[in-house]
Prior knowledge:
alpha/beta; Rossmann fold; 2 domains; six-stranded parallel β-sheet; four-stranded parallel β-sheet; 10 helices; about 15% strand; globular
Amino acid sequence: MEKFSIFxxxxxxxxxxISTAVAKCIxxxxxxxxxxxxxxxxxxxxxxxxxxxxYRIGATPYFYxxxxxxxxVLIFKHEPYFxxxxxxxxxxxxxxxxxxxxxxxxxxxxSIEFNIREKQFGLNKWTREKPVMVLQTNGGPIQGQKFPYxxxxxxxxxxxxxxxxxxxxxxxxxxxxxxxxxxxxxxxESHFEAMTNMELFSLLLVSQKEILIDSCLQHASxxxxxxxxxxxxxxxxxxxxxxxxxxxVAELPDIKLPNSYLFDYDFTGQLHECPxxxxxxxxxxxxxxxxx
Length: 292
């Protein structure tokens, strides 16, 4: 009888990249079982050789009969965001997620694999005459986010401008942002148009330098073994970050959080929660420049 491990996950693109490390840990702990993944972004998984099948949530015809009914199956479908270790910031998300499933964690990292056409596309689309620097100033969904600038994770505009002023002669700077976000003066180009996830991640195949935020590209960078500069404001690199990155954490003053329940700051950057009165003291600009 065939044996199966079914890994179901929900959430955003960055969480999906993180989850590939958990999927790898499931496979390493249960190598005799076929790994079946059900998720919102199956393109993240389709090229991974340790995954046997991947399904989009809601597109699972005959799934119960094929993988569960009278089968030898293990189900991995729990939400790590609502565990004590995550809420109290005791463990990195990957390690906590594996602990939730009673898996032996052996340092598994996220994985991204490109097929040959995706590699060719990336090289054709993103190669420039000068070395490429990626500057992700804004994160989150391209559409539907309430504010064009989220103070909890987006790079303060004056910081981005200082980076561009310092490096624009040496690098072709590609800004990744949302359509309503501020385009930084002097960047080589700014991209906010919709593209596939792998098209976006293929930018990292050609980039020489990356200045990122807590968003999908910093997870993809870690998955590709790159060492990027990552700026952190309302979230923690201890939970969502990677030691191979150069993680720079903002200095935030204390503030009362009357609307906070299990987490401190709303990831979307609610205006009334912002504790920052003057952006000039949040980051040490020279520290950022030196890290790049």
